[in-house]
Amino acid sequence: MVAMNLLPIVLATLAVAPTAFASPLEATALEARGRTHNGKETTDRPVVFPYPLNTGKKFKETPRTTKTCFVDALGNGLDDGPNILAAAKKCNNGGKIALLDDLYMIRTPLDLQLNKVDIELQGTLKFVDDIPFWEKNSFKYEFQNSSSFIQIGGKDVNIYGGGTIDGNSQKWIDAHAANSWTWRPILVTFFDLDNAYISNINFRYSANWYILVHTCKNMIFDNVSIAGGTTSKNEPKNTDGWDTYRSDNIVIQHSKIDNHDDCVSFKPNSTNILVQSLDCNGSHGISVGSLGQYPKYYDIVENIYVFNTTMTNATSAGRIKVWSGEYAKPPSWVEGGGGGHGRVFNVTWDAIRLKNIDYAIEITQCYGQSNLTRCSEVPATLKISNVLFRGLYGTASKKYDPRVGSLVCGGPENCNNIYARDINIQPPSAKSPTFTCRNMDQSLLDIPCA
């Protein structure tokens, strides 16, 4: 067995007791219960804190709000975006934006730069499905040619209320099936945001990723629901639940996700992130990467802890995906990559329940490279070390039966201190499960490598 001091160091910084530090919102919990507008009442800001584990870093209090701006929906399909932007300007620096009506239609890109602001969403924000308009007017980001309907930044922000943000994705899904170059926006991007709490919000029908956390720090997502689907023969693509990028001290917890890509993806320069108590269905796993896509960048993912989560009907449960050592472009992909540098360090998957999973564990350093012979000739240079898979248990699908995992590094010098402990995965055939293990120290893997 592995000595405790060899396990990833995150274990030393996470506390099981929920009282490791006081709730960040206790100071505002006694704020007077809301105001009534058009027969509907605003509610108290919810109390949100990491539970049962925390990242070891404190989350700061956010000031109480001192004014409220109500936004009345125009109805008849008219654009409510300008009125929301006006309310954000009027109630910035200490106010609450109250969206209490049933439906707000949006045809305006929403750039919300907020300071000490609450957004209470009780109704639905729904984006018009005008593809040419959004391809031209959505917010654009260099990373993976991404774009977004909404961009929220600033400091000391709370978003709650039980409402829904709806990407109205069916037209996008069908357009992308016909033309993979269709520029599909992310539903919501949090960009350069510090000290924020997103709770009791539903994200529905995204055309692309649901949530991008871009250059943010000190955020908690709690009691979030993510779901989509299709009414045609075409399936949604790239509908990641969360993607974190250049972000630090993020908690994602107590949420339910039903999607068709990564449940959570830790993209380059994601650090000190805790994911706990999620229920992920239909996903590609809780994944590190993809990394090493761009040669001019050094990608870092470190101090990640995934705990007490259920993965159902997924291609993988815990996954690390790294591009190969040279540029490659898969035939059906808009963008290729490879040849980048960096490191994955101190990442743990712990207490993960699996139901009908293709692979319980997957590590690849040939992501995006269909020519595996060439990938082995020019292996990835990105290093993977101090990774622990512990307490993964449940059932595999029949796809690779009896193989239930694949741990393959580009070369033995690239993967160090990769541990697997207490893994119990049963294939449907009831045969003895096996794992593919290459280019790593198999004495650290308490799994049947074949």
From TrEMBL:
Main subcellular location of this protein, as a coarse class: secreted
Coiled-coil stretches: none
Catalytic activity: [(1->4)-alpha-D-galacturonosyl](n) + H2O = alpha-D-galacturonate + [(1->4)-alpha-D-galacturonosyl](n-1)
Active site residues of this protein: H284
Keywords: Cell wall biogenesis/degradation, Disulfide bond, Glycoprotein, Glycosidase, Hydrolase, Repeat, Secreted, Signal
InterPro entries, per the entry: Glyco_hydro_28 (IPR000743), Pectin_lyas_fold (IPR012334), Pectin_lyase_fold/virulence (IPR011050)
GO MF entry, a single one: galacturan 1,4-alpha-galacturonidase activity
EC numbers: 3.2.1.67
Signal peptide per UniProt: 1-22
CC annotations in GO: extracellular region
Entry-linked SUPFAM superfamilies: Pectin lyase-like
Location(s) in or outside the cell: Secreted
Enzyme class: hydrolase
Protein family: Belongs to the glycosyl hydrolase 28 family.
Name the UniProt record assigns to this protein: galacturonan 1,4-alpha-galacturonidase
Originating species: Arthrobotrys oligospora (strain ATCC 24927 / CBS 115.81 / DSM 1491)
